[in-house]
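Model it.
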Amino acid sequence: MIEKIKPLRKSQFAPEDAPQDAQQPACPHPHLPGPDAGCKLCRIEVDKLTVSFGAQTPLKDVSLHIHCGELTALIGTNGAGKTTLLRALLGQIEYTGTIRHLTSDGRPAADLRTGYVPQQLEFDRSSPVTVMDFMAGSLSRRPVFLGVSKKTRERVLAALERTHCAQLADRALGALSGGELQRVLLALALTPQPDLLILDEPVSGVDQNGLETFYQTVDELKRRNHMAILLVSHDLSVVERYADRVVLMQGTVIKQGSPEVVFDSPEFEQVFYAKGGRA
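Modeled.
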């Protein structure tokens, strides 16, 4: 679940093309010393991003910043453009506008890694594949049927330990609860360490205990590794509790700021209540 993002075109990083607030050289979150310093990324700046499919324009003039050390949540009703924005950030669709990956001194940050946790993993739950098999097959070129090497097993256990699920290593993947499976996928998304972690409705259908465990783990990882995290969620209570910044979308960005600022805004009221919308 790791994707290496290619450096963007040089023109996208040109200082003279940057919006005024992009000229800020300092990262608002000092980088941590030591082995948990995490990413080389300070922020991702999206400026006037527009996506069109023929006559349809699901995203228009989207501008926002995603900072390391913060969890930024995208909210909005169905069809608001959240998934389209994720696809643009992952380089899966064409767009106009700019996406800049910048270091703390305002320079381009190249060769970024993005970890991705999907809403759910589709697989045959009757398969005897274990968590160790699944992780080893993703992290090593050696075919799993030849056995997992000691080195790979240690690497898998270390990855699972980060999300507090090393005890699941020898369990069948299909026997895991929804919350357990999502923590395994989170462990995979974090190996190797990403600069940006994208969580695309990662606990849909997971029970309350599993949900709390998942987000507590994410919050711990954010603080320890100082990574930028982008969350798409329909659960506004989770967003209110765990997000540092909220972006309300409706084909464009109509409000952004702290959870308190966005949730108390007339734009939020209009989207979710005046029109009978759902998160």
